[in-house]
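Example with several molecule types.
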Amino acid sequence: MGKKAKRQLMFGNEAVARGAWEAGCTVATAYPGTPATEINEFCAIYPEIDAEWSVNEKVALESGIGAAFAGARTLVSMKQVGVNVAADALFSLAYAGVNAGLVIVTADEPGLHSSQNEQDNRFYAKFAQVPMLEPSDSQEAKDLVAVAFEISEKHDTPVFLRLTTRVCHSRCAVTLGERREVPRRPYVKNSDKYAMVPSHAYKRHFDLEKRQTMLEAVAETFEGNRLEMRSLEYGVVTSGISYMNVREALPDFSTLKITMTYPVPHQLIRNFASQVNKLYVIEENRPFLEEEILALGIPVEGKQQLLRVGELPASALRRRILHKESRQKHAVEGLPKRPPQFCPGCLHRGIFYLLGRKKLIVTGDIGCYGLACLPPYDAMDTLIDMGAGISMAHGFDKVVEDGERVVGVVGDSTFFHSGMTGVASAVFNRGVSTWVIIDNRITAMTGHQPDPASGYGIDRLPAPRLDIETVCRALGVKRVQRVDAFDLEAMSELLDAETAAKEPSVIIVEGPCVFVDRASRSDAWEVDQAACVRCKSCFRLGCPAITIEDDEVRVVAEMCWGCGLCAQVCPRKAIKRGPDKVGERASPRALDEESGA
Amino acid sequence: MTEKTEARPAANVLLVGVGGQGIVLASQVLARLAFDAGLDAKQNEVHGLSQRGGSVTGHVRWGREVFTPVIMEGEAHFLLALEELEALRWAHFVRPDGLVVADSRHIAPASVTAGGEQYPEDIPGRLREFAETLSVPGYQIALEMGVPRAANVVLLGALSTRVPGFSAGEWKAAVSAHVPEKFLDVNLAAFDRGRESADR
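Resulting structure tokens for the full complex:
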């Protein structure tokens, strides 16, 4: 057998990329989104994989479809809400099928650690009739990528790989394999299969239903669907991370681990159900498997006991299934909360301070700046989905009356994702909206992935930079202004002038993300205690570096980024930075250490 | 997980702190320590928005066979806290016969500095209602050494004196595997200072 296979600890997302590489994948596309982001970042490390950040998930999937039709094994990854954006392509793709294998990773977020909803994308598999595989740990995640490519090519279908946050972001041991080169499959023109005009699609729909019947049979004997008999009293049908939680909390229960979540293996479930006295189904969020089991006429307990909201950790199973409490006391209640905050030196702080102070109606968007809807800013009225900051402002503007001023806010990555189309639509429809585009030239929240504003690609090599001002002018906005994110007076004047204008206008607020531009740091500010009257005006900035100790307002030097917003809002001019301090850099703050994700 | 009287007994370690303090790195060191010793190890960490100065946790579990990467309430053998309020927030995860190793550092959240809430008093005393508690001035030590960012490694040093089954050399190898070479010496020194602080 030769030397022993190498084993190492691997992140779920890293294992997916490794699995794609081993399976001969040559193209990877994605738009960043927690918890999926690192899949594509790890893909980009392999020289054999041509990985890129697309501007949104629809573009990522369409590019991926092109690559797969052209004959390359292709991996497209996205977070759960990304599939909504890509869904238009998905449903017709299910009709067309593939040429070389195409695997779509959906990373779902029960518990919404960093998401706007908990949607359960298993329903997309059923809805679009696309098979879905679901790993429980990193090893299985790696192995299932190769299996997914094989199913994809054998059955001429895209295949979903569904992860959830705890699989994406857990490290466990993985046995590494070698890469298998898969030659390009020749592309042969075949518009009956690849061009979904009604007459073609009608025929392909028959093919899809035929494939569906075949895949239902495949699911029954799929190796990953594993029956493990222990107790004959209790049995659990489960999948994904829930399998691990069941094994932990209910070690004596028999299990049917469903690894091919769609199509659901009905016969296998019947067989398992007949061997145990009492059947449970344990799954996070929606009762997806439960509905399938109930439809078979099999009595099963699931969501009567278990919440549909949030995760179902082993603790919850111990409490709700075994009715056993923790051996420890309850959590301490009433402790001060610690929500995430804008970093010291963040470019979002000043503009949202102003938007909140001016009592504007702010239609917001997805990004770190979602924090602006929380105190002390209270500066964001709405947050629905990507691009909505632009389009919703236009909708508000149709309805509001004089005295109600509306501003739509997006970031640079979001603008390119789906903000541009909203601008085009509003301009065309004689809109009058004011839009603030906060441009730090990076996709910050997900861990600093480059976007079209960055000037470099996923490989960090130079790439064309799209200038947001030029784009907005090309989309027909005549009033476009740029302003420094740390100049409160200039931003304030612009907000007043542009919201008063009766035509579309764009304010581009420019500044760096502190994680990306470490050189933007300058000397720390200090509070002159003799001048400070403790009015706490500076606290409205919500800066973690400003604190109060022994009734003295202080700037914590090791955290201060030197942005100077606090000095601008202080009515007594008590926050100072003397020339004697120049050159005396504070020690790098703790935030250096982890550069987000 | 069944308790076994082995040379390297199974353990669950919950790491808590404030986003940016180095919870992820400390979690990786612990998972590496167990994995390199031939144990099954799993580690879970938080990514995305919560890292921006919010309350952050890292779970590490090892043993002969580990299923879930997430520790059950009341089942952590060790609670390693880089900040006191966070120790108290997650205290219900530690086993009554477990150990809390907590940095005495306070980082006031915005709800205290700007929101008018009170930072809790006598946290070590309240932690002792949950389990034995070792209070370590990890951040203070790291500050004195001129590397405030190494407070997490000081705490690992303190923890290492109480986790059965691994030699100091094995601990240092795990630390070395996860800190940049440029900062290796200072981190190993921080680790030693942590060990000393726990011995006192």
